[in-house]
Write a structure and sequence with these properties.
By secondary structure, the protein is of the alpha/beta class. It has one domain (about 30-145): Rhodanese-like domain (Oxidized Rhodanese, domain 1). It is built from seven helices and five strands. A five-stranded parallel β-sheet has the order 1-5-4-2-3. Helix 6 (about 120-130) links the parallel strand 4 and strand 5. Helix 2 crosses helix 6 (about 120-130).
Length: about 150
């Protein structure tokens, strides 16, 4: 095989492989334990779908809407009326929103959401484990929420 053909074949192989790896690199791969953890948490929490969540957003009636994504994601756009408490800090930062230490409201209605539903599921379970009784995870995909024309603040 000539050098020209070898270079051509190598170049074509690289052109095919690079996009294929770039596509797979976009979607994070997690060990199955992560999905299992989320699925297990779902067995113990209340969830609502996009239509029910829209009703809450339109008329929160004193309920807290909590975006559990990271601050940069929240700043880039969020559901109107939502406060930002990242999932990794929810156990520590929820207290100033529920009357701690004098009159902690463990019955406060809270609706949590994130980008795809995993983080809010785990955060909802954490709040329940802390004793909050009225916590619900909105199992929505934020991209679909926006595409459907639901309210979104940028």
């Amino acid at each position: 095989m000539s050098i020209f053909k070898s270079i051509l074949i190598s170049t074509l192989a690289i052109c095919i492989l690079i996009p294929a790896t770039a596509i797979t690199a976009e979607k994070p791969k997690y060990p199955p334990q992560v999905k299992e953890m989320v699925m297990e948490a779902m067995k113990h929490i209340r969830t609502i779908d996009m239509d029910a969540f829209r009703k809450v957003v339109d008329n929160p009636q004193g309920a807290m809407i909590i975006d559990v994504r990271e601050p940069k994601s929240y700043a880039a756009g969020h559901v109107p009326g939502a406060i930002n408490i990242p999932r990794g800090l929810i156990e520590f930062k929820i207290w100033k929103h529920v009357g701690f230490p004098d009159k902690t409201d463990y019955d406060k209605k809270m609706y949590l959401y994130c980008t795809k539903g995993g983080r809010c599921t785990l955060a909802t379970k954490s709040l329940q484990d802390l004793g909050f009784k009225n916590v619900t995870a909105a199992r929505i995909k934020l991209e679909k929420w926006q595409k459907a024309g639901h309210p979104f603040v940028k």
